[in-house]
Amino acid sequence: MSAPEPVVEPCAAAPMSRSLRWQLIGIAAVAIIVITVTVTVGLPDLAQLRNTFAQYPRWIAAPIFAGVYAVATLSPLPKTVFSLAAGALFGLPLGLLAVWVGTNLGAVAAFAIGRALGKDGLHRVLGKRAKTMDKYLERKGFATILAARLIPIVPFTVVNYASGAASIALPGFVAATALGVLPASTAYVSVGAFGVNPNSWQFWSAVGALTALTVAGWIAVVMRRRSAARRAAEVTEL
C-alpha cells in the first residue's frame, strides 16, 4: 500500500506590509484633497492665472509659477492652461523656462514617490497602466521615456510614477524628460505668447507644431494597437 500523497495547499496572496499600507493611505488622502479642491474651487482659467501673477515682478512671479506648475504635475489635472498662461505672462523665453523647470521638478518628485511605493504599491494605485509601462521601461527605459515625452501616448503623470517604480536610473529619467518635453512645451508657450496676434507667423507655427504632435500621437496609438492585435493573432494561431 503506497503512502498517501501530501495535500498541497493553495498559496495565499502575500499580505500587504504595514509601510505599504500607510503609503497607499497617504496617496489616497492626497488624491482626495486634490479632487475635493478641484471640484470645490475649480481649475483656474487663463484670465485668473494672468491676474494672479501679473501683480508680482517677473523675477518673482516666474519662480512661483514654476513651483505651482511642479505641484500641478504631481496630479492628473490638465496642465495646458498653465503652459498657455506662462506664454501670455512671461513671453517665450522666460515662460518656456518656467514651464520647463516646473515640469522637470514635478516629474522628479513623482519619480521619487513612485520609487518609494515600488512596483506592487504603484500597481495597486494605477492598475493596468502601470503594468503596461513596466514592460516598455524594463526593455528600453531612456528611449521609452523620451518617446512618451515627444509623442504623449501615455499620460505624463503616469509615466513619472511608473518610471520611479521601474529599474531606470534617475539621471536617465531626468535627461529623457528634459529633452522630450521641450517641443510640446515650446509650442504651448508660443501659442500663449503670440495669441494676442493670431495673424503672426509665430502663432501659426506653434499651432502647426501642436497639430503635428497630436497627429503623430494618434498614428502611434493606432500602430501600437495594430501591432498588439497582430501579435495576439499569431499567438492564437500557434
TrEMBL record:
Belongs to the TVP38/TMEM64 family. GO terms for cellular component: plasma membrane. This is TVP38/TMEM64 family membrane protein. It comes from Nakamurella antarctica. InterPro entries: TMEM64, VTT_dom. The lineage of its organism: Bacteria, Bacillati, Actinomycetota, Actinomycetes, Nakamurellales. It is a multi-pass membrane protein. It is found in: Cell membrane. The chain crosses the membrane at residues 24-44, 56-74, 81-101, 141-161, 168-189, 201-221. It comes from the Bacteria. Residues 77-193 form the VTT domain. Keywords: Cell membrane, Membrane, Transmembrane, Transmembrane helix. Pfam families: VTT_dom.
